[in-house]
Amino acid sequence: MAGTTTAHEDEGASPKELLLEAARRNNVDLLEEVLGNKKVDADFLNHSTDGVGNTALHMAAQHGSLEVLDHLLDQEGLEVDPINRMEQETPLHKAVQYANKEKEHGVDVVEMLIDAGADPRIRNKQKQRPIDIVDPRDTKLREILQRAEYAMTVGNDVVDDDDNDGPASDSD
C-alpha cells in the first residue's frame, strides 16, 4: 500500500542520529550502544555532524554532557578541535558558552576538553578565542583558559628544558 511504512522502517534513527542524541542528552547507555557498532570508528565520530557541522563532541560540550564527553574523549583518533560550519567554533567554544550559563558544571566541561588537548587559541568566525567569549565576571574560567593558552604557546619547551642536563646543541 502506497504511503504506509512497515514496522522495520519505524524502528529508529541512524547511528549518526543516535550518536548526536546521546551527546545531547548525556545518555551513556545509548552512546555505548552506538560505539558497539562495528562500523563506528574515529572517522565516523569525527565526521558525523548535524546540519551546521556540530559533532558529538560539540553537542556534549554545548549541553554539559560530562559522562558522554568523557567516553567520547576516550575514543582513539577522536579529533578534539573539530570546527563546525556555521560559526567555525570548536567544542571548547561551545563549552565556554555552556559555562557562561552553568558556572561550576561548565568549568568541568571546559577543563575536561583542555585536559584532552583542546586548543584554546583557535578563533571562531568572529575571530574570538574561547577566552574572548567568557563572561567577564568569571575570573576562574578566564584563568583556566589563560593557563591553557600559555601551556599551548610554550608547548613542550618547558618539559624539554627540565629533561635536559645542560644547554641543547645540534650534536645532542
TrEMBL record:
GO terms of molecular function: ubiquitin-protein transferase activity
Gene3D superfamilies for the chain: Ankyrin repeat-containing domain (1.25.40.20)
UniProt keyword Transmembrane, yes or no: no
Keywords: ANK repeat, Repeat
PROSITE patterns hit by this protein: ANK_REP_REGION, ANK_REPEAT
Regions annotated as coiled coil: none
Gene Ontology biological-process entries: protein K6-linked ubiquitination
InterPro entries xref list: Ankyrin_rpt, Ankyrin_rpt-contain_sf
Keyword Repeat: yes
Signal sequence annotation: none
ANK repeat start-end pairs: 52-85, 87-125
Name the UniProt record assigns to this protein: Ankyrin repeat protein-like protein
Annotated organism of origin: Morchella conica CCBAS932
